[in-house]
Amino acid sequence: MARVSDEELKQLATELGDRLKARGWMLATAESCTGGWVGQLVTAQPGSSSWYERGFITYANDAKIEMLDVPETTLAEHGAVSEETAMAMAAGALAHSHAQAALAISGIAGPSGGTREKPVGLVCYGWALADGTLMSSTCRLDGDRDEIRSRAVAAALRGLIDLI
User: What domains lie within the chain, and their CATH numbers?
Assistant: First the structure.
């Protein structure tokens, strides 16, 4: 499978920005396996300072705990790549920002790091809104590291677009 095109990613970021601006909302992001790709993508959009508030790159578990208040028990019981952790990351991004919407991504982009229970390509998402809405999803993506990461970014953006 191919990587999501730069044009498609740009279109998703633009659509999300339009929806956030229409509501007067700001976005916060919490990324692990995508390493700030969402933040880079949205800040490449002209005028994104009117709807993108901040991003957290929390690759290590300690960063998730320290920056986003992800409970140590959540990480111990469910692991970094879990819907529970992704939801906690999204909620933490909201709590540590002035945003009204947040998205979070945690996954195993490979080529190593996968297990039988959590294979390479497993990606978990969390989305949170200031009204208390909290949603999550998990998918299994095929491809190499770059393909998995680009598809994870696209899925996270689509998920928040659909939510708002």
Answer: 6-163 (3.90.950.20)
Residue 47, burial from CB neighbour count under 10 angstroms (0-12, 13-18, 19+): exposed
Name the token pair of 95: 């709590």
pLDDT reported for residue 2: 86
Closest CA to 26 of 81, 103, 89: 103
Residues of the chain with pLDDT under 70: none
At 144, list the tokens: 């190499």
Which token pair is 29? Answer: 């992001």
What distance, in Å, lies between the first and last C-alpha atoms of the chain? 29
In whole angstroms, what is the distance from residue 41 CA to residue 32 CA? 15
C-alpha dist (Å) from residue 64 to 28, 102, 105, 162: 14, 15, 12, 26
- Count of H helices and E strands in the chain? 6, 5
